[in-house]
Amino acid sequence: MIGANSMKSMVTDYLDEVLEDVRPGDRGAPASYIPEPANVDPDKFGVSLATIDGKVYGSGDTETEFTIQSIAKPFVYALALEDRGFRDVLKRVSVEPSGEAFNELSLDEEGRPLNPMINAGALTTHSLVGGDDWTQGQCLQRIIDGLSAFAGRRLQVDERVCGSELDHAHRNLSIAHMLRSYDIFPQDPRVIVEGYTRFCSLLVSTRDLSSMAATLANKGINPITGEKVVSGRVVRQVLSVMTTCGMYDAAGDWVTQVGIPAKSGVAGGLIGALPGQIGVATFSPRLDEHGNSVRGVRLFERMSRDMGIHLMEVPPSVQTVIRNTAVLVQDLTDDEKARG
Question: Is beta strand 66-67 parallel, antiparallel or unpaired with respect to 56-60?
């Protein structure tokens, strides 16, 4: 029988090897349309994996903090569903893939944003968190508290990034004003954009994000703290939308090649949640043409192949995923020995 320490070592060894295999190459670049995030070291690279039984593994820059950006969207969507219920939220935000960039104003025939993973939908779900009589400050605090509960620790706003993004929020402001003209939400568009920008500026690490993803994988219960953050019914809705819409106009490639619910952010973060199994998070600031992390996507593709975590070939238990990794590491080690 493989002991706990031996298992941890094997999983970490596997993550170390995959990280180094994926690292070479300099394709892509950090997001440059906002000055502050563009200053990040493009060679930072880390991966964390959290299981639904509370174990966390990692390799590389797992403690480096960066802003959560659009990875906040599914979690804010979860809070809106929890606070308002499905009927109210679905009345304002649809769940259809847009096939367009994240910052397009994509509306359906009823005037609703096409899904909560694009900016128009995320601005709308932000407006739905809390209650009708809540102040903007109360709504924002609810979001920060909620995302902190998903992460298992108190998250803080990066004020420099927030200020930089607010100075260049012209497109989001135009989207918010257009949504207000359609009566999608009643609040002042400037207030909505400011709140949205603040929670997108929360600082996280891959360890935090893997815990957040594992909470989704664990039916809304944080496997590290044991806190129930949202209901299982809400999680099912969120994971379904992440599967079809979480990677923007690259969602089709993602589903076929990786096959798990996911969400990316322009700071270079990327999460995936395999229901009943694990949460995985990567960080690498070099982005592709869709705004997704180049190395992050490659790493997820490799892990999906190696570990068999595609939804269409999901193993029966979390132990299977981890033991498959241990066997894979042993096979790699045996191959190295055979080569002398």
Answer: unpaired
Residues 245-284 have pLDDT tens digits of 999 778 889 999 999 999 999 999 999 999 999 999 999 9
What is the per-residue pLDDT across 4-31, written as a single tens digit (0 to 9) for each? 565 667 889 999 999 999 999 888 888 7
Looking at residue 294, what DSSP letter applies? Answer: H
| Phi, psi torsion values for 125, nearest 5 degrees | -65, -35
CB 300, CB 270: distance < 8 Å: yes
Residues 140, 134 contacting (CB under 8 angstroms): no
Is the pTM higher than 0.85? The answer reads yes
d(CA 261, CA 200): 20
Burial class, 191, CB count within 10 angstroms (exposed 0-12 / middle 13-18 / buried 19+):
middle
DSSP 311: G
Give me the sign of the Cα torsion angle 237, 238, 243, 247: positive
269-274 and 278-283 as β-strands: parallel, antiparallel, unpaired? antiparallel
> Using CA atoms, how far apart are residues 248 and 251, in angstroms rounded to an integer?
6
The DSSP code sequence of 17-86 is HHHHHH-----SB---SSTTGGGS-TT--EEEEEETTS-EEEEESSS--EE-GGGHHHHHHHHHHHHH-H
In order of 56, 154, 217, 292, 297, the CA distances from 129 in angstroms are 30, 19, 22, 27, 31
Amino acid (1-letter code) at residue 56: V
Token digits of residue 47: 């991966």
